[in-house]
Amino acid sequence: MTTAPISNIRNFAIVAHIDHGKSTLADRLIQMTGGLSDREMAGKEQVLDSMDIERERGITIKAQTVRLNYRAKDGKDYIFNLMDTPGHVDFAYEVSRSLAACEGSLLVVDASQGVEAQTLANVYQALDNNHEIVPVLNKVDLPAAEPEKVKQQIEDVIGIDASDAVMISAKTGLGVPEVLEAIVTRLPPPKGDRDATLKALLVDSWYDVYLGVVVLIRVVDGVMKKGQRIRMMGTGAAYDIERVGFFTPKMEQIDELGPGEIGFITAAIKEVADTRVGDTITDDRKPISEMLPGFKPAIPVVFCGLFPVDANDFETLRAAMGKLRLNDASFSFEMETSAALGFGFRCGFLGLLHLEIIQERLSREFDLNLIATAPSVIYKMHLTDGQEIEIHNPVDMPDVVKIAEIDEPWIEATILTPDEYLGSVLKLCQDRRGAQKELTYVGSRAMVKYDLPLNEVVFDFYDRLKSVSKGYASFDYHLTDYKPADLVKMQILVNGEPVDALSMLVHRTRAEGRGRAMVEKMKELIPPHMFQIPIQAAIGGKVIARETVRALRKDVTAKCYGGDITRKRKLLEKQKEGKKKMRQFGKVDIPQEAFIAALKVDS
Predict the structure, then answer these.
(1) In whole angstroms, how far apart are CA 62 and each of 94, 247, 355, 477?
(2) First to last CA, the chain
C-alpha cells in the first residue's frame, strides 16, 4: 500500500441537492480508480449507501468515506479521500461534519433541474469551511439538459465562477476522467506537520459488533500508529489503538495514518459515549493544549414520544436507542411515562424525515413494534410568577391560569419552485401562518423566502409542498427566533377519557379544523365495540368537535316471531340497558394504526 507525500493527498466531499447524483458519481469514481472491481460493483448501484433503508428510498442518510488511489496524467500517484454526503435538510448535520474533514468540494448540479434550495444550503456550508469548490454539471446527456443556462444560474445564485464547470453523466461515466483530473489540479492538498504532536479530528463513530466502536478520524498533525495510547480531549477517555486503517470501501488495515489522511481506528472502545463527534484526539503521553474547534452540537428541532406496543419490550427499546445513538450523534432521548401508553422515551430529531428513519431503523434492525406520539417542537412558556420554562411535550403544559405568554420557534424557509406552481406554494405558506420576506427569480424559477412557525412545518408541510408543486419545489430552512403566539392545548377524548398521546399545542385559529380532522380520522380507525364510543376534541372544558363510533348490534329480536310490538320493545330495552352498563365499564382498544394515522392527519 503506497503512502503518498502530503502534497499528493486530496480530501474532498461531494455536495448537492437530493437526487442530483452524488452517490452515483461516487460509484463512478470508485470504479475508475479501481477501488472495487467491476464484479464487486455488478448489480449494485450507490455502493456507499450501505443501509437497507438508504437503498430502498434511494437517499443517503449517513455520510460515507472512501480512499482511492489515482495515477494522474502527470505520472504521480495521488490519494483521494472522498466523502459522499446526504442531501436532505434533516441530515445537514452529517454534511457539516464531512466538510470539516475536507479542503475542497465537488458541487454537483443536475443540468436539467438547475440550482435547488439544498444546493444553496450545502454550498454555503462548504464556503463557511473555506472550501475550494469545483462545479460539476451532471446528467448532461439528458434531452432536457441545459448546461449553459445552469452555469449562468450557478454564477447568479451562488456567485461562484462556473465557466470551467466539468460536464459529466455520472450514470454512463461520460466526463468522469475530467473530474479526477480537476480534483488533482483544482483542489488544494491538506496542510499538516508530521513531526508535531498528534492532533486529529473525530469525524464520526459507530458501533460494530466485532470490533467495538469504530472511529472515523482526520489526522491534522502528527502520526497515528498501532499500539499508541491516545486520549479523547472532550471526554478524557484514554485507549490503546488496536487497528488503524481506511475504507476502499472495504476495510483495509495499515500501520499508521499521517497528517492530512482520513481513516479509522478501533481500540476496544465499549462506550460510544466516549467518542463524541467533533472531539479532538491527541497523544495521551504528551497531549496538545488546545482542542480543534469541532462542530456545533446538533440541536433537535422536533420531539416525539416513542413507546413499545408490548410493555415487555421496554428494555430492548432502551438498548436499541443506545446503539442508534452511537452512530447518530444528532439523535437524543430521555425516559417518559404516559397514562395511555406506559413507559417510553421522549426523543429529539432534526426533522420529520429523521424521525421516520429512526423509527424505521428501530423496527427493522431491532425488531421493535412502536407507537409514536404527535411530533411537537420546543415552546417557551413565560409564567405569571416570572419564571421561563421550555416545554416539548404538550402533556407537561402548566395550568392556563399560570401562563403569561407562550413563545413558539420560527424558521426562515427558502423555497425554489417553477413559475406555474408559485401561486399554490404561496397559498400553502399563507395557510400555514407564514409571512413572505422576498420573492426573486432565478431563470424561470421563483425563489421565495418565508418566515414560518416551525409548529406548522413539522406536521406535513414538506409532503404538501411536494404535492402542490408536483414534486418540483425544493425546500430548505433554518431556525431564526421565538415569537409570542396564541396557542391552546387540544385534547382528544375517547369515551370521555383523554388520550395523552394525541394531545397537542395548536394555534387558536387552527384548533377547530385540526380537531375536526382528528376526530373524523379516529372515527374511521377505531373498530366498533359493543357500545357507542364518543370521540371528542376539546380545549380545556370546551368540546370543539365530536364524532361517534356506532355500536355493533346483535339482532336480539330474531327469535321473536309475531306477537305484539311490546315484546320486541322489551328485548330492545333490555339490550339498551346492557350497552349502557357496558359503556361505563368497557375499555376501548385503540389500534396502533389509529395512532399513527391520526398523527399524520392533514388539516
Answers:
(1) 7, 15, 14, 20
(2) 59
Helix (H), strand (E) at residue 150: helix 147-153
390: cell is 421550555
| Domains within the chain, CATH numbers bracketed | 6-186 (3.40.50.300), 199-283 (2.40.30.10), 302-372 (3.30.70.870), 379-485 (3.30.70.240), 490-498+511-599 (3.30.70.2570)
pLDDT in tens, 557-578: 767 777 778 878 887 787 777 7
The HSE-up count of residue 153 (CA atoms within 13 Å, CB side) is 26
**Cα–Cα dist 385/590, whole Å:** 39
Provide the whole-model pTM. Answer: 0.66
Q: Which amino acid is at 315?
A: E
Outline where DSSP puts E strands in 459-541: 474-485, 487-494, 497-498, 504-507, 533-539
Q: What is the DSSP letter of 496?
A: T
d(CA 603, CA 589): 25
Residues 521, 590 contacting (CB under 8 angstroms): no
Give pLDDT < 50 ranges for the chain: 1, 43, 47-51, 54-55, 57-58, 60-61, 602-603
pLDDT digits (tens, 9 = 90+) for 4-33: 688 888 888 888 777 777 778 877 887 777
